[in-house]
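Hi Y.,

Following your request, here is the sequence exactly as I used it, all 215 residues.
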Amino acid sequence: MKGSYKSLEGEAEAMIKVKGSKFIGYSRSVQTHEDTEIFLTNIKSLHPKARHHCFAWRLGNPVREERANDDGEPSGTAGRPILGQLIKADVTDAMIVVVRYFGGTLLGTSGLIQAYKECAEAVLQEARIVVIVETETWKIALGFEIVHVLEEWAPKIGFTILERDHHNDKMHYTLEIPAAESYEARKILFSKLDDIYPEEVDLDQKAFNLFEVLD
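Below is the corresponding structure, written out as tokens. Let me know if you'd prefer a different format.
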């Protein structure tokens, strides 16, 4: 579903201690499997002597893939609690790695779950959570006699004019708009350009198809 979603900006770090064991959490944004592997490798290089490097990540909007890894801890005691905090914060394209240095005292299943949960929660409290607004970019070519209409109305209905490209017979515009507003805004803009009611515009008809979407 197009619109907005929450993710992480930059990197964050937090540490907690539980019965002598030290848990250090790291978070950052990731967009691909390669990003997750690079981040995990970087954390492992910072802590080569740590006993465990447990992690979880979520990718996609809407979320299309999640992964949790216990890295040698008892099954379900590390990766799942970390993933649970990412889910609770409702962030995606995001990853947390928690490094554990064993302090000599066994924490038990419930103790491990609580420790990894608390560390992931702590690092998210330090992280910068941002709202990402998905946008669409469109091109439209107009005769010079109506460019003033676009110049007036495009900003009023949510378009940002990214580029103006002067051709011999037409002006080419590159426009950006939040994806959730795109369809209705294009209908309104076309109605202004053609001097008709928005209800008369059907963007699926060839006659109204002046817009070219850019990836």
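The radius of gyration is 25 Å.

Thanks again,
Q.
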